Amino acid sequence: MKGAPVAKALTERLVPQVEALVAQGVRPTLAIVRVGEREDDLSYERGATKRADKVGLGLRKFVLPAECSQEQLMHVINEVNEDSSIHGCLMFRPLPKTLDEAAACAALDPAKDVDCITTGSLYGVFANRPLGFPPCTAEAVLELLDYYKVPLDGAKVTVVGRSLVIGKPVSMMLQARNATVTMCHTHTRDLVAACKDADVVVAAAGHIGTVGAACAAPQEVVVDVGINWDEKAGKLVGDVDYDAVEPVVRAITPVPGGVGSVTTAVLAKHVIEAAQRMVG
Ligand SMILES: Nc1nc(=O)c2c([nH]1)NC[C@@H]1CN(c3ccc(C(=O)N[C@@H](CCC(=O)O)C(=O)O)cc3)C=[N+]21
Q1: What pLDDT sits at residue 249?
Q2: Which residues does the annotation say bind NADP(+) (predicted)?
Q3: What's the gap in Å between 43 CA and the centre of ligand 1?
Q4: 136-259: which CATH architecture?
Q5: Do the first three CATH levels of 23-110 and 136-259 match, i.e. the same topology?
Q6: What percent of the chain has pLDDT over 70?
Q7: For residues 253-267, b (16+ Cβ closer than 10 Å) or e, as one string?
Q8: Is 51 annotated as a binding residue?
């Protein structure tokens, strides 16, 4: 299951919406806030930049060194908040450990929160109410499954990983679609059994090789959300051992070229919606 056709279908719907806003004198604009040079952040930034070009979004990049102070970061977030030509903000996470991530997230104007980093938006996801936007990556997982007509109602879905960025919210969103969700993590006793028994496995652990050959079964649809830098191979890889799992399972997403490309399309969709709401 490649991401490109899903992203293309989404993008095609977005272009006329951007044109309509531009005709009203508003160019929907995304601010990217990046601290440091993490490979997964840089990958997202490359993808988002290409997507912004395709869709016709404005893009403003705010880059700080990994050793920056909390004050410098807060200053940037404030600048994003105050600038009325910016409609949405994506701040890459995790931030370096020296920074207070929760305080930085809380400082963003909720109206510009296109990736669900503020508490109100998160509440919306957990309460299944349309407040703000869900995380782009979590929504991308659902867009991808819908595009490829993978049934969710009553399906057994195993989510591997419990982060606030992806594992927890995607679990809530799958549950809202009436899936029976099993959340697995580092202390799960039998990850292999939880995966082998599932109709859908969402791998979002953030570690290379979390889902290996032993987890694969013929009925499984595997969505690999991981973006890891493989030092040995010198390339980006997911959480799933693709070569070992792919021959066994019903379907699987590649990395790169899977969820990531859909994520950038969802991000563009959110920025446009944020701009539409601000125009009124
Ligand atoms: N607040 C926050 N939310 C995130 O969702 C988040 C984050 N921080 N930090 C970094 C990771 C990583 N991530 C990616 C998303 C898309 C691509 C993407 O578009 N990938 C292209 C390839 C782009 C390239 O590498 O040239 C693809 O898979 O085809 C990559 C990585 C989201 N993350």
Answers
A1: 98
A2: 161-163, 227
A3: 5
A4: 3-Layer(aba) Sandwich (3.40)
A5: yes
A6: 100
A7: bbbbebbbbbbbbbb
A8: no
280: pLDDT confidence band, cut at 50, 70 and 90?
A: confident
Can you list the alpha helix ranges (DSSP code H) found in the chain? Answer: 4-23, 39-55, 70-82, 101-107, 119-127, 136-147, 167-176, 191-196, 242-245, 259-279
Give 33-58 pLDDT, tens digit per residue: 999 999 999 999 999 999 999 999 99
* Contact partners, residue 215, CB within 8 Å, separation at least 6: 191, 192, 195, 196, 201, 245
Domain ranges of the chain: 23-110, 136-259
Q: What is the pLDDT of residue 202?
A: 98
Report the DSSP beta bridge partners of residue 63.
34
Residue 162 assigned as binding residue: yes
pLDDT in tens, 98-119: 999 999 999 999 999 999 999 9
**8 Å CB contact between 85 and 31:** no
For 23-110, which CATH superfamily applies?
Leucine Dehydrogenase, chain A, domain 1 (3.40.50.10860)
Please provide the size of the chain in residues.
280
Residue from 6, 44, 51 whose mutation best tests the ligand 1 pocket (most atoms within 8 A of CB): 44
